[in-house]
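Fill in residues.
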């Protein structure tokens, strides 16, 4: 089961630099360390094989697996080294070298072994003492039996494989882009690291005394998810969920998901056999949410402007979509009312005005059509160049308006200048003739048109005349 918040926001003025830096650093650390540990393990396995220890140790490991129900099940059915392929043999030897629970079993039962078995185990221990401490996963991973302040943080940048890394980085990107902008880069970085550290502490308390190292950014990234829902509080946001083969979106109060996530991690811890750090995830979730909830009025203020803008933008999209649906259903009166209400909340909105112009074309002699066209053109021409929609509005209006176009003065002058600037000379000429016919050209516009006509005449052509 996967449930992720999808209320993403992006403000170009506050690029999520830290999120991208975390992604880059995690990837660089993985690439630079995974090869080193692989080389160390290959050397250790070669030394083990050279000592010809496996045939002696395999029966001992079989006894350990039979006695300990929590031991790895993968090797339980191996009765002879002769049935092992090269790949399987390599990974079995690695397991024998790094399995600390097995090492403790050997220590407890050392009085039961023969001299030849003790000799083989002694030679193996020399290999373990020589190579295993060199592994970066042991040096910088968090080991519950050896609490270290450094590894609370360094373990967050180590990963056990490509799948582990990619999975974490995808979630980091999806969640971090929003959280960094809501909290600001400093608090985002601080809370990310603290959530990961708290997740490691919870893991260490649950697995107290375990010699196995824990690595990965999952605790910190779970913290980001906790921060996310805490920042939105009780506001309803979109969640993407994937259960089995079914996936969809649901809109729910953000904080409602926190106990669901924590409960899932606790359930998986008790009822799922896996080496995943579920308790670290739960700890990270609680830490991330707690830091934001405790500090949102003081040291961890949430940028509510971003949230409110997103809420307003969503409402705008929903209202506009509703109006367009009314148009599609040919309920033009209701569509007009919906667009008018939209313009009351968002004065001068080009998309709403454009739709009103399209509705008005059905009755080109009405005041509504003339006014909607004027308001649309007055708004879009002041903000930028001519778009295809704007050109179509101009053409339609000068062709359809009854008893004729009423746009005059400065706006008409702007339209002519824009048309000439983009090379729409035929349309500019048509507008000039129409304006002259209907007496719409004021002295300033007439002066500009005559100047342009004179310029065209001097350059060998004559297009716009007035």
């Amino acid at each position: 089961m996967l449930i992720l918040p999808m209320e993403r926001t992006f403000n170009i003025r506050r690029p999520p630099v830290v999120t991208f830096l975390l992604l880059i650093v995690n990837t660089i650390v993985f690439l630079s360390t995974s090869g080193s540990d692989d080389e160390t393990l290959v050397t250790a396995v070669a030394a083990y094989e050279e000592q010809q220890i496996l045939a002696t140790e395999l029966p001992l490991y079989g006894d350990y697996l039979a006695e300990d129900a929590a031991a790895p099940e993968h090797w339980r059915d191996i009765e002879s080294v002769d049935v092992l392929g090269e790949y399987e043999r390599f990974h079995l030897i690695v397991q024998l070298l790094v399995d600390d629970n097995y090492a403790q079993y050997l220590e407890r039962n050392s009085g039961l072994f023969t001299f030849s078995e003790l000799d083989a185990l002694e030679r193996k221990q020399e290999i373990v003492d020589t190579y295993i401490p060199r592994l970066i996963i042991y040096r910088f991973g968090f080991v519950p039996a050896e609490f270290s302040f450094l590894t609370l943080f360094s373990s967050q940048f180590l990963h056990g494989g490509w799948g582990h890394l990619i999975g974490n980085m995808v979630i980091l990107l999806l969640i971090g882009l929003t959280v960094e902008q809501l909290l600001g880069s400093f608090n985002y970085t601080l809370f990310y690291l603290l959530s990961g550290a708290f997740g490691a502490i919870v893991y260490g308390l649950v697995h107290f005394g375990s010699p196995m190292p824990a690595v990965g950014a999952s605790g910190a990234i779970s913290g980001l998810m906790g921060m996310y829902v805490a920042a939105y509080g009780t506001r309803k946001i979109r969640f993407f969920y994937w259960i089995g083969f079914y996936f969809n979106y649901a809109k729910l109060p953000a904080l409602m998901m926190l106990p669901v996530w924590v409960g899932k991690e606790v359930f998986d811890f008790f009822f799922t056999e896996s080496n995943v750090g579920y308790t670290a995830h739960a700890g990270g979730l609680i830490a991330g949410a707690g830091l934001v909830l405790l500090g949102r009025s003081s040291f961890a203020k949430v940028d509510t402007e971003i949230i409110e803008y997103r809420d307003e933008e969503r409402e705008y999209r929903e209202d506009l979509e509703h109006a367009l649906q009314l148009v599609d259903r040919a309920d033009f009166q209701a569509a007009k009312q919906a667009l008018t209400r939209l313009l009351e909340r968002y004065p001068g909105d080009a998309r709403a005005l454009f739709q009103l112009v399209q509705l008005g074309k059905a009755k080109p002699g009405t005041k509504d059509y003339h006014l909607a066209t004027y308001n649309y053109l007055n708004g879009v021409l002041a903000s930028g160049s001519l778009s295809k929609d704007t050109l179509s509005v101009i053409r339609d209006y000068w062709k359809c308006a009854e008893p004729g176009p009423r746009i005059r003065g400065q706006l008409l002058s702007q339209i002519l200048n824009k048309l000439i600037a983009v090379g729409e000379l035929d349309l500019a000429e048509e507008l000039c003739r129409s304006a002259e016919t209907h007496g719409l050209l004021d002295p300033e516009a007439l002066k500009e048109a005559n100047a342009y006509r004179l310029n065209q005449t001097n350059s060998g052509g004559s297009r716009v005349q007035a």
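Confidence is low (pLDDT under 50) at residues 460-466.
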